[in-house]
Amino acid sequence: MNIVGPKQRLSTRLAFLAAGLAMSAWAPLVPFAKARLGMSEAELGLLLLCLGAGSLMAMPVTGLLTSRYGCRLVVLISGAFTCLLLPGLAYAPTPALLGATLFAVGAAIGTLDVSMNVQAVIVERESGGSLMSGFHGLFSVGGFTGAGLMALMLWGGMTPTASAAVVSVLVALSLAFCAPHLLREPDVAERDAPLFVVPHGAVIFIGVLCFLSFLAEGAILDWSALLLTAEQGLDANRAGLGYAAFAIAMTAGRLTGDRVVRKLGGKRVLLLGGLCGACGFFGAVLAPSAPLALVGFVLIGLGASNIVPILFTAAGNQSAMPASLAIGAITTLGYAGILAGPAAIGFIAHAASLKLAFGGLGCAMLLIAASAKLGAASKKA
Question: What is the DSSP string of 219-286?
Fold first, then answer.
């Protein structure tokens, strides 16, 4: 039987920290990979499909795995594969090998993502208070730390491979510290869960909102560096500052998010968050200089910060299907945004401009704001 207390809450935060570190390491490497392999925006967009495809292949079965074997085993195995694969992103010599590595990294991080969120739902529920924004805040801490550290190491002259290896070591250390207190046993309510349930009702709606939010976040991960270098003239060694600015703002928003959600309610947070994120995207597109574009990335981070935590809590609280399977389902639907987003942005950038593609993401955030009332209602489902 799992016992949930302060140690389990800390271990959950460390798992989110490790996932954020791993995920953010790719953003500063994108310009180097593009230059090394001589790819166009459209070709890079197609290659980036592999990252999302790997996640989508792994996520639907991860909820089942955690309901059978517990969160600890799934978190640690997926985390170990992530650490081993990250340096390969920096030295893959051909587009085919880079695509294969991106697929494997996507599968490992996708599995880690779902399993740690299943643990977060259980820990939050058993603790009797709002904790999800804080957990996701540690993911943002990892994102800021990883992107900033990568940018600093690359700026200082370290090779991309060595920089990625340093991040892998930090991920491994975080997982080692959290391992003893991850939940070893499956949730009692999930042990008899069916092997598969077709998502329906509130789960589908929550998944659509996750799709839009992850679409926006994935664009910052994969394309912010190129927007700053190609459109704003920022040096490639500093291109990771875009994702770092986004991650700092998201960290601040999520670390205070549990109090904000309790005070304002989910409806207002979704409404204000969507509007703020839209202003950020439009600002980054229209900014006349790189520093002002970075302000846009800050607004995106603040706006998006608490949207996904609210939706994950909603998926854990709904009664249409078992929580572990619901988490896997909405994460899969959400990460479909990461699968479709990079390719769509690449094609739009190739046919028109990268600025137009980012303007479309601002419209996606407006759709989240327009769905705030229904999103809040889904949270109570």
Answer: HHHHHHHHIIIIIT---GGGTTHHHHHHHHHHHHHHHTHHHHHHHH-HHHHHHHHHHHHHHHHHHHHH
